[in-house]
Design goal:
single chain; alpha/beta; 7-stranded mixed β-sheet; 5-stranded parallel β-sheet; binds ribose-5-phosphate
């Protein structure tokens, strides 16, 4: 590797360390601490002068603090003479605020992209963005990776022709098509209406699910409200009570784990794009991203195309 360095943000320490291990480099030692007044302070404990530096930091909750830490780390690298900086953001917070659904709203995703732009990054690497068009919010080049093939791989052995891939809302229909084509299964779509941050209702379901084993697919699970409503609609429509839920980003905020555990769901599959503060119950399977991110970083370091790792547009 040509002068390659990995720096772990504190939201992604385990993932960044695993990526560094795959690349056979030691993560750069750094300290991240809070002063007594609550201000964040970061410092690099070793030189990055002339290096190709990859800063790994998910913008998971608290997204604002994690974003600011990423920017402080970038600033420390630039001032220390790093040759090139790349932000590796396994989960992009605020991505759902990508348009004004009502009047007088802020577009949070655009603000986050602009702030990341102040970090002086040559590129930003993201994973399974809420909407592919978010790439256009950034002035710098974005490499949009996907974990969908890796997630589909862990399901393939379990499903034959009795499965159906289900999008829990219209926004996930293209994602469901991608899984359906990888798994050679039909697809169905639940049409949801969001009532509040935590509550959603289902208007209708299109596609045949009766007597089939559903695989519900989404980009993220936050409160679990979307999945809960979709599961109830699928059961009402006569699916087999053998449901799998797959999502790249397991935010699992508030009481999401308890809420989802109370449902007749056999298996949850998520990645480690978001670090879990507590061990997940046995029904949750976590697919590691270290291999995918290490491959992407190795390609970038050598100036090789990332086409084979990129998300569908
Ligand atoms: C929405 O469009 C997203 O793709 C997810 O369906 C949603 O954000 C999940 O949130 P929750 O788990 O809170 O319903």
């Amino acid at each position: 590797m040509q002068g390659l360095c990995i720096i772990a943000g504190s939201a992604s320490t385990a993932l960044a360390n695993a990526v560094a291990g795959r690349l056979d480099v030691e993560p750069v030692r750094r300290t991240v601490e809070r002063f007594p007044d609550g201000e964040l302070h970061v410092e690099l404990a070793e030189s990055v002068r002339g290096k190709d530096v990859y800063l790994v930091q998910a913008l998971s909750p608290p997204a604002e603090a994690n974003l600011f830490e990423l920017l402080l780390l970038a600033d420390a690298c630039r001032r220390s003479g790093a040759e090139r900086l790349t932000a590796v953001v396994p989960y992009l917070g605020y991505a759902r605020q990508d348009r004004r659904a009502r009047g007088r709203e802020a577009i949070g995703a655009r603000v986050v992209a602009d702030l990341i732009g102040t970090g002086g990054f040559a590129r930003v690497v993201c994973l399974d963005l809420h909407a592919p068009a978010l790439e256009g919010f950034f002035a710098s080049p974005v490499d949009h990776l996907t974990a969908v093939p890796a997630l589909a791989d862990v399901l393939r052995a379990t499903y034959r022709n009795d499965g159906v891939v289900v999008a829990p809302d219209v926004g996930a229909a293209k994602l469901a098509d991608a899984y359906a084509s990888l798994l050679v299964l039909p697809a169905a779509v639940v049409h949801k209406v969001r009532m509040s941050g935590e509550r959603v209702a289902v208007r209708q379901l299109t596609g045949e699910v009766r007597d089939r084993r559903p695989i519900l697919v989404d980009d993220m699970i936050t409160t679990g409200g979307t999945i809960e409503a979709a599961v109830r609609a699928l059961l009402d429509a006569g699916c087999r009570p053998e449901i799998t839920v797959v999502a790249t980003h397991g935010l699992l905020v508030g009481g999401a784990i308890e809420r989802l555990s109370a449902l007749p769901i056999e298996r949850f599959v998520v990645t480690d794009s978001v670090a879990q503060p507590v061990a997940l119950p046995r029904r949750f399977q976590v697919v590691p991203l270290a291999g995918l991110l290490a491959d992407a970083i190795a390609h970038l370091n050598r100036g090789i195309s990332l086409q084979s790792l990129a998300a569908h547009r």
